[in-house]
Amino acid sequence: MIMNKRVLIQILVLGIFTFCFSQEKLTYPDLVKRLYDMEYLATPPEHGEQSGNFSSFDRSSSYNPKTQTYDQWEAGYDGTGYIREEGNGIVVFEKDGPGVIWRVWSALALSGHIKIYVDHQEQPIIDMSFSDFFEQINEDGIELPKELPGYPSINLPNLMPTLSRGRNRFIPIPYQKHCKIVLEKEWGMYYHITYTTFPEHQVDIPYFDGIHRKDDCITLAEADRVLVNRGFTRKQYSRETIKQKNIILNANQGENVTTIHGNGAITHFNIKYEENIYQYEADREELLKNVWIRITWDNDEKEAVFVPLGMFFGTYPDVYPNRTLPIGALPGYLYSNWYMPFSEAAKIELINKGDGQHNLVYEIAHIDLKKSADQLLRFHAKWHKGKFRHEVQTQGRDIDWPLLVTKGKGRFCGVTLHIQNEWEEPGKKAVNWWYGKYAASNIWWWWGEGDEKFYVDGEKFPSTFGTGSEDYIGYAWSAEPAFPLFDSGFASQPFTAIDGNGHTIVSRFHISDNIPFQESFTAVIEKYKDDKWGDKERGCTHCPNICLYQAVAYWYLSPGQSDGY
């Protein structure tokens, strides 16, 4: 059949119109708002949407496709890696667009310059000392005083936080066609750069010349304000319904808190307890360890959320006050701001696995959705102590400890990790602090040398490869004395033992830099210490030392898909 030429032209015009119309046109303020947009996490990723990181990991770690094995997978010179040398520096990031750089981190930022080139331009849009890069942005019409080098142009402490020496910068850097980053001589040590690449037909990325205009600066200031008020305030919805229920959980008993019917989304929930009833640490540990939250979406046979309260809210074995954007713990109050859609029903239960009784107040906020939630992702969170280790630790990957192994289509959004790292006191006294510092330490106490590695859709070599567990969280140089605590919008360490010998709990969340996947996702973190470890050469006699991990992963999957847990 021969098609009429006029009809063919009409079809082509309609196709072009549809293509252009379907593109999401984003402004720079739109990108800034992605930093705290919890609703976007429930949006199914398009084919071609990818996230990952570039870091200074040790390039001797490699995958051999001929033998299908991993070589030098535990290599630890993680400050040495880069793409190539170029001029007076090293290329540390290079990627075709359209895309956005969401986060830049470094353990040590010095005077050497960072130069960022976009769209194959010869001149960099950003050219400043690496240390200044974590202190300031280029504002339109603002010329910094030459007599005050390093003078900050704008104060955004929650978008550019320093977490126990780790420098973090959450200021979006978009690029349309291509981006290259060069670090020049004396720039510092260690880097991470996280990014997202979008398919051209999906997103129209704004051109960025390195200068922030008035609207950009105002939106950045608003984002910083959102993050500083995290946990104290939250996004309010005009059509929100709030349910509250007093719950008495007897020993080894479950309670159906509520079942919400309809097409909607949970936007916030919290659990309150009377502090005067939980005066003692043992009582609070009993609550956090043995009371579990279970959430089932629609008519699914299996729950999507099943986690003990403490680990879900990022605090264990006690209530350590901390506030992040998605979750937090305050005295007498545990909160969640995860956005949780459902199309038919949401069933929320509390399960008491212990022998004690618990009196709690549960409050939940939800909204009705005008559009069907059938096309939105479902929130998942599961607890484990190393599930899938036997599947992950093969072919030379013995050092990898699984954070999440799942299949389906979705987004990885973060993890809470608890470490119980305990050891016998060494016979040799340290020259300073408790156990000395760096090479002068009298026992190998540090648990977190391991790199995070994310494998997306069956990748053999991970598209995210980190430089150390603390670097992934956002701090730096292990937890050497004085073992500080911190929290921020996207990461926290609300507790670590003051001498390092005991409990540590950390959280890291991916909001704008979530990791989309189409078929499967595996996240691991290297674990250098065995569950039982010793250091006999340095004074440990019987070595009853332990290093035990437990984790909760937070992610989204398409409706009805099994998460594998």
Please give a structural write-up.
The protein has 565 residues and is mainly beta. Helix content is 12%, strand content 38%. It contains eight helices and 40 strands. Strands 19, 21, 22, 27, 29, 31, 34, 35, 36, 37, 39 and 40 form a twelve-stranded mixed sheet that branches. β34 and β35 (491-496) form a beta hairpin. The longest helix is centred in the first third of the chain and has 18 residues, at 5-22.
Tell me the layout of helices and strands.
Elements lengths: L4 H18 L1 E2 L2 H6 L16 E6 L6 E3 L4 E3 L12 E3 L2 E8 L2 E8 L1 E2 L3 E6 L7 E4 H4 L28 E2 L2 E4 L3 E3 L2 E7 L3 E2 L2 E6 L5 E2 L9 H15 L12 E9 L4 E8 L2 E10 L7 H10 E7 L7 E4 H4 L9 E2 L3 E4 L2 E4 L3 E3 L2 E8 L5 E11 L9 E7 L4 H4 L7 E8 L2 E13 L29 E5 L7 E2 L3 H5 L12 E2 L3 E6 L5 E8 L5 E3 L2 E7 L5 E2 L11 E13 L8
Parallel strand pairs: 1-17, 22-29
Antiparallel strand pairs: 2-16, 3-4, 5-6, 6-14, 7-12, 7-13, 7-16, 8-15, 9-10, 9-14, 11-12, 18-28, 19-27, 20-25, 20-26, 20-28, 21-22, 21-27, 23-24, 24-25, 29-40, 30-38, 31-36, 31-37, 31-40, 32-33, 32-38, 34-35, 35-36, 39-40
